[in-house]
Amino acid sequence: PTAHLALRFWVKTGVKITISDHRDPTPYWLLSSRKSDEIVRALGF
Prior knowledge:
This protein is α+β, with helices and mostly antiparallel strands. The chain is built from one helix and three strands; from the N terminus they run E-E-E-H. The N and C termini lie far apart (23 Å).
């Protein structure tokens, strides 16, 4: 399985979200974000 990527080369920060649902073949998502801290907080990591 492959990861889901939502990357922008001009955004220097991002977050890796590990998918723990055994029904989902995607192991993780990689997201570019200028507000990666807010994403982490919203997801409860």
